Amino acid sequence: MKKNFGSDKSISLILRIALTVLIICVGATFLHVYDIKNVFEKNTLKSYEGHVDTAVEEVKYQIDILKNIMNSFEKNMEGASLNEEINDVILRQEMYAKGYTFYYLAPNSVLVGSEENKYNDDLYKALQKISAYYYTENYVCLPAKNYFTDPEFCDSILGIKKLQDENGGDYYLIVKRDLSGILNIETFDYLNSMGCFAIIEGDGDVIAHSETFNKYLSGNNNIYNAIYAKSSKTNKAQNQINLIKKNIYSEISFSTKIDDENGDNLLVYAGEISNSHDMYYLYFFEAKTLNKMVQGVTIRSFIICLFMILVMVALIIFVWITLNESNDLIIKLAYIDEVTEGYNYNYFRRHVSQILQNNRETPYLMLRFDIMNFRYINESYGHDRADKVLMATVKQFEKVFDPQRELCVRVNSDQFVAIVINDIEFEEKYMRYLKGISDNANEAMIKYPIRLKMGMYQVRKEDQNVDLMIDRANAARKSVDVTSNNLTATYSDNIISNMRKVDAIESEMDKSLKNGEFKIYIQPKWDIVKDEIMGGEALVRWIKNDGSMVYPSDFIPIFESNGFIETLDFYMLEQLCIKMKEMRKEGKKYRFFPISVNQSRVLINNPDYVKNVEKTLKRYETDFSKIQLEITENLFFDQQDKMVDVVGQLKKLGLELAMDDFGSGYSSLNILKDVPFDILKIDKDFFDESIISKASSVILKKIFEMAEELDIDVICEGVETKEQVEMLKGFGCHAVQGYYYGKPMPCEEFIEKYCLIKE
Ligand code: C2E
Ligand code: MG
Ligand code: MG
């Protein structure tokens, strides 16, 4: 049967937590990615700024170097007057300073150096233009572009030094450095990868630029025009460009944005390289290229985060599946009884209020029951087969009763609790249920009759407390008199007061036994033919320390229910044996009569019973022929096979066996044929009425006849009058036990009165 407990709260809680964590993670991921995007953008811009600074430093450095090279050039030229000598110096210079070109412009306007004459005119014109610079110093460093039309000189800076020879003639030393070469070297790679770097004059004319600049220039040699061409061409863009123009003279370095044609930005960094030489730098790039990079990083981060979230989702699913599986196991452990495979007591207590709530108008009974003598089923048939009976107790319930509205579970060992509908069908269902359990036990080859000791509590509408209902049904169960044939009791207020009495007795019994409060009383058995004593019956009396006496009818049924009777019966047997041993050892002379001891039906079920009796008797060297055992008739009805076996074994030991209270229960005379008793004790119920009815006398006659045939002695109990004695004599009765001849008396009194041989 698949037990369905509905959704489990703990799992849904874990799932809810997991989902919340997941949502938080997704949110955090978006924030994180947004963060990454911002940080990346900022850092990229910063690193560009850094690179622009480095690039500017590089250009400045080149200008400085140009000055140094010019100095060494000047030094080497000292003393060189002939053209050949000058040429030599230039060649050497160019060999050591790669990337630089050296010229010597003589006073006669003859240019010495690489491709000498080619630039004569240009140089002259250029020198005219720049002559203004020489008012203050004889060395200038300036972009070549503005002075030379030849492309060779474009993208270069020139170092020019004006000198005079001994004749007062001006000559010039010129060193040219190609800047476009510099702008495309490694230092600028990073910048070039995204935008372009240019060295400009204040008015925006480009002196030198990286290769990447060509695509922006579009034939335009002015940076501002180039930027304008790329911009949104609005007034605003124009104003922004004007601002750069203005700032470039006054600020060391700055950055700004200009709206571009795509509705995006052009990012611009600009500043001064050498104010005195009208050289500035400007680096710009389209924001969209940065955006593309940022986008790439953002997407990559997002994919990684998404992947992690997916891993997390997979983990949650895995955990969920694992939890579900272990939840099944937990449910099994928490709510399933492993022996019956049905629900357990925890589940019952949880579920009963729900059943009652859902069926408010239905009358219910709370049942609390156990299986009679289950301990012996366990011991005789083994745990596995006994467990089948426990399982059948639940399975049969599920078959007979309505599983939606009725429920039965095992509490522990052989204890069960059930809630059932108390309608007209209940009795018929209950009988079917009992039969089902018995059939199952038979199938498991268990011959022992399965009987339930049942306590019932009628649930009232106002009842709320499940435990209280169960307790009340349990109180009813405990009140069942196991010696009677009705093993069912319904809770009533009397039960509680009885329970209290039972509790009081149970709480005292062990201590009382130790204190010797259980005493042997003996009632004589009389031979009515010889009119003399022939034996006695040992009967227990509980005489408490305060002197009050409790009779067996008040405690024997309780001891039979709780099992203490086993201890008590052996105690009585042992005390009797001790007494007999004492009598043998004393100097006085005694007659020994056979004394009978009552043995509860409960004892029979103990597999060691016969062995224990033998041990006890042998321990005190008791004469086996002087002990009789009385076993009540009711028992045989239940367990005839067992009885035949046990009585047979006891007889083998040499003990005499009596069937007690014959005629009080349901036994038939036939039993006497099967169970080898020596003595039949006829119950006092037969003689309760002062005049014995005709029917009783017919039965009695038959009993005596049959007993004689079977060679069984008969003794009549409860004989109180002379008339009864006489009448019994007429039936052929030889032995009686009753108040007429003697009431039960303390053991010592009995010995003194009947056993002691007085000289
Ligand atoms: P029982 O074994 O049938 O014992 C006979 C009972 O009948 C005794 O009651 C006795 O006092 C009573 N009786 C004898 N003659 C007369 C009579 O003329 N008139 C009346 N009205 N009663 C008479 P008692 O001692 O109260 O014991 C009651 C039952 O308790 C016993 O019935 C026996 O079944 C049980 N019992 C007593 N002692 C023990 C014991 O040590 N072990 C066990 N297992 N059961 C015991
Ligand atoms: Mg008896
Ligand atoms: Mg009796």
Question: Summary?
Answer:
Helix content is 51%, strand content 20%. The protein is of the alpha+beta class and 759 residues long.
Structural class, from secondary structure content?
alpha+beta
C-alpha geometry: rod-shaped
Whole-number radius of gyration? 62 Å
Count of helical segments?
24
Query: Got a strand count?
Result: 25
Terminal Cα separation, in Å? 81 Å
Give the CATH architecture of the largest domain: Alpha-Beta Barrel
Our estimate of the beta-strand percent is 15-25%
Q: Could you tell me which ligands this complex binds, including any ions or cofactors?
A: ligand C2E, magnesium ion
Largest sheet: 8 strands, mixed, barrel
CATH homologous superfamily annotation of the largest domain: EAL domain
Secondary structure: helix percent: 40-55%
Specify the CATH class of the largest domain: Alpha Beta
- CATH names the topology of the largest domain as TIM Barrel
Low-confidence stretches: none
Mean pLDDT, all residues: 85
Spatial strand arrangement across the major sheet: 16-17-19-20-21-22-23-24
